[in-house]
Design brief:
The chain starts with 15 loop residues before the first helix and ends with a helix. A hairpin with a 6-residue loop joins strand 1 and strand 2 (76-84). It has a three-stranded antiparallel β-sheet, with helices on both faces. It is built from five helices and three strands. 44% of the residues lie in helices and 16% in strands. The chain has helices at 16-24, 27-37, 50-63, 107-128, 139-147; strands at residues 66-69, 76-84, 90-99. The relative contact order is 0.15. Helix 1 (16-24) crosses helix 3. With 148 residues, the protein is α+β, with helices and mostly antiparallel strands.
């Protein structure tokens, strides 16, 4: 069983959802975030080299989703795809996580489901108009909190 308490902070550089947000930040904003928060190691697979992280983020932007394998916990994977507002800004992500052994043989299906869900949610947001997120859920608030 994999349980993450609601509101538990996770490092953006070690999670699929976090990598989606990092990939879609502006270069300057991402650099400030990395300098302020750092690239802490959690497992031997955690990316701590900014150049390697930048290559991964470029792949996330190109592919439209992120995958992490054993980056914050040795036994877990994550797959995430961006949810965008009508302007194309990433406002959230659909994330699937679980035991690493379940990823084998199912990765393509999981990725397709996560991406499809994110696109469907994004389309619905576009259909109904702009979505206002509470400040407590915004990436900007997380960055301010990390800087303090």
């Amino acid at each position: 069983q994999y349980v993450v308490p609601v509101g538990m902070a996770r490092p953006m550089h070690g999670t699929a959802g976090g990598k989606v947000f990092l990939a879609h930040m502006g270069d300057a904003e991402r650099l400030v975030y990395i300098r302020q928060v750092g690239l802490k190691r959690f497992t031997d697979r955690t990316v701590t080299d900014p150049a390697i992280l930048e290559r991964q983020l470029k792949m996330v932007r190109r592919a439209g989703y992120a995958i992490t394998r054993a980056e914050t916990s040795a036994q877990l994977f994550g797959i995430a795809a961006p949810i965008v507002d009508p302007t194309g800004k990433v406002i959230s992500a659909v994330n699937l996580g679980g035991p690493l052994f379940r990823l084998r043989g199912r990765q393509d299906a999981y990725v397709a489901s996560v991406v499809a869900a994110a696109k469907a949610i994004s389309a619905e947001i576009t259909r109904i108009g702009k979505v206002a997120l509470p400040e407590s859920l915004s990436v900007e608030k997380e960055q301010r909190d990390a800087a303090e």
